[in-house]
Amino acid sequence: MVAFVLVVLTLFVIPGPAVMLTLGQSISGGKRNGIFTGLGIAVGDLIHTMASVLGLSAILMTSAFAFEIVKYLGAAYLLYLGIRALIEKSTKLSVPTPEDHTVSRRSFTQAIVTEVLNPKTALFFLAFLPQFINPAGGPIITQLLILGLTFVLLSILYTTFIALVAGSVSQWLSRNQTFARWQGKVVGVVYLGLGIHMALQSQK
Fold first, then answer.
1. Where exactly are the structural domains of the chain?
2. Which of the 8 DSSP states describes residue 144?
3. Which helix (DSSP H) or strand (DSSP E) does residue 37 occupy?
């Protein structure tokens, strides 16, 4: 388990789609928005963990057609979010208040859909988790669940840290009129970049 945690923490250091998405949402919408984005990503990872345990992710590994369908659905969704964010007009930076639950719920939902529709994540869990299975450590299903839940917990802690740091920057940016004219564009560019990246992914 210690080796697993160390490897996961090392992977987190490398900026990936989850990090970029959390960072963009935190800068554009504040700490709360970023935290809920991270929680949404964690829920998506939890779904992938359950799919791996049940063997459903194997379909994406063995079927090129299934992989392509999921990949392009995810890419299309990200591109849609990116284009919508870019064309939305904004005159000032609006950092959600603790009472602004609507924006947070939307970020949470979008993050779940984005993570679930990323076939690379499914393949990651299917290929990564079994490497830390101990044949003498008990039922394999139980071990996979523990490893997956540990990954999800570490992911929540890491994205929350990113959201808190980046969210603090958004408070300063809220007083910057130049950035105010570009609010939403930050997240839009991030979504477009992630969408293009996902569309160009290969199964291997």
1. 20-88+96-199
2. H
3. helix 31-54
